Amino acid sequence: xxxxxxxxxxxxxxxxxxxxxxxxxxxxxxxxxxxxxxxxxxxxxxxxxxxxxxxxxxxxxxxxxxxxxxxxxxxxxxxxxxxxxxxxxxxxxxxxxxxxxxxxxxxxxxxxxxxxxxxxxxxxxxxxxxxxxxxxxxxxxxxxxxxxxxxxxxxxxxxxxxxxxxxxxxxxxxxxxxxxxxxxxxxxxxxxxxxxxxxxxxxxxxxxxxxxxxxxxxxxxxxxxxxxxxxxxxxxxxxxxxxxxxxxxxxxxxxxxxxxxxxxxxxxxxxxxxxxxxxxxxxxxxxxxxxxxxxxxxxxxxxxxxxxxxxxxxxxxxxxxxxxxxxxxxxxxxxxxxxxxxxxxxxxxxxxxxxxxxxxxxxxxxxxxxxxxxxxxxxxxxxxxxxxxxxxxxxxxxxxxxxxxxxxxxxxxxxxxxxxxxxxxxxxxxxxxxxxxxxxxxxxxxxxxxxxxxxxxxxxxxxxxxxxxxxxxxxxxxxxxxxxxxxxxxxxxxxxxxxxxxxxxxxxxxxxxxxxxxxxxxxxxxxxxxxxxxxxxxxxxxxxxxxxxxxxxxxxxxxxxxxxxxxxxxxxxxxxxx
Length: 578
Ligand code: ADP
Prior knowledge:
This protein folds into 4 domains: 5-219, Rossmann fold (3-Layer(aba) Sandwich), CATH 3.40.50; 239-340, PAS domain (Beta-Lactamase, 2-Layer Sandwich); 345-417, Helix Hairpins (Orthogonal Bundle); 424-571, 2-Layer Sandwich (Heat Shock Protein 90). It has helices at 27-44, 54-66, 71-76, 85-92, 100-114, 127-133, 137-153, 173-182, 190-193, 198-238, 257-263, 267-270, 286-295, 342-383, 386-417, 429-441, 463-479, 511-514, 539-549; strands at 18-24, 47-52, 80-84, 93-94, 97-98, 121-125, 156-163, 185-187, 242-247, 252-255, 300-308, 314-325, 331-340, 425-428, 448-453, 458-461, 486-494, 497-503, 554-558, 564-571. It contains 19 helices and 20 strands. Strands 3-2-6-7-1-8 form a 6-stranded parallel β-sheet, sandwiched between helices. A 5-stranded antiparallel β-sheet has the order 10-9-13-12-11. It is rod-shaped and about 150 Å long. Bound molecules: adenosine-5'-diphosphate. Adenosine-5'-diphosphate binds at residues 476-477, 480, 504, 506-509, 517, 522-524, 535-541, 564.
């Protein structure tokens, strides 16, 4: 139980001081060891000074009593001095450092009293350990030195107790070595001291060496991981996009510099507060929807919405939100990356305004050009100059193309601003399809446009706009089938709908592009293909919007290289409705 007493050679015989350190893991072990040291002293008539914390002084006295030693008697005889370590410290600490003069005076005088009559003195001290616990390591080391100095003036045996847990962590490596250096002997803590045979000691040391080596490797690994982490933190911090994280309740847990810049809140202000603080009041219900998806482990991609800055102004952001998992894979929160779209939106608006203005400006001279061209054509017909007429016909075709482009641009900007107007009437779909077919047939020498099916369906809507859709689909069918020679058109009835079908045998469209064709400016690019096709990528967008506005649907079925079939539906005209 108690530490073997051979460890406490006391130098009373030699008149030299002995300054050793006892490391310990539990109070029980410390008391075992110190009571053996102190008890042996009391038995041989040494004087004893205990400079310790109150609990340690009390436990020690209890133990000594239990061992049959009469502490009260020894105290009355001036053989046992028990002093509170903190109080003693406060007597000689000046500006967080032990003052050598005062130390020698205070501690020296206690030792002198104890040593009366030539008694050897045994001391158990914890003042250094207290300074260590307060993290005043410089003062602790200095005090150890002062004790050593004092040992030159008085002969005593000093046991310093240090709790082992005070040395956790890499940072203490050197200081621990220094403390060991300060003492003439070092007594290891119980996990080693309790082993009895030399074999066990060797085994324990070997194990410790192995443990130390693997810990060092682990520390190196963690340092590398920490550096990688710091690197990532730096990336997050320097990002132009707001990057934040939140727990499952939506409480913000991290906030980067861009988030502070974009939303106007500093990290200190907002970490710990709910993310809904950033939501525009009319967008608050988005929170539950987003979190439901996060809980299912889904990611919310490029979600455009409105948020509010600290100053109350609104901003448009595009957010991507992904679940955060802990090491066991449980979802514990979410990270959000938000891009400020306010400027982009503004730019888009200006672009739309520009398109609208430019197409208006282009339209005026075009109309007049077309007018004069008509006059010239009529005049030249009477002169029968075939060559001149041929040139004029080609000019006319080009002017028509240009007019179509400008009209498309105009329509585009009108759709954007909701100003595209519709003149609705009841009409026969077959006749319209026939007209469009003839119209487009006149522009091509390579393709036959074949009307394969008719229905006699009547629809209600803007005849010109539907004609525009048909012409657009037919032109595309010709344009994107340079090696084919026909385009098939069918009109059918399907319950309460009319269905128009334009089929070509051209280059076709790969699946991944199909859902995007009806977006503004979308054009399929086929890397590696030499041939390019003229166009602005807005015809299908306009057609889609027109059909949608009529309560119909426009879609495509195609495979790359195998032609394309565009279909659209329109509600049939019904008596009494509309
Ligand atoms: P564009 O002016 O480029 O023809 P559209 O809006 O009419 O614009 O069409 C968008 C894109 O869809 C085209 O650029 C083309 O890549 C593809 N596309 C349209 N029609 C067809 C078709 N019949 N066959 C293959 N690709 C087509």
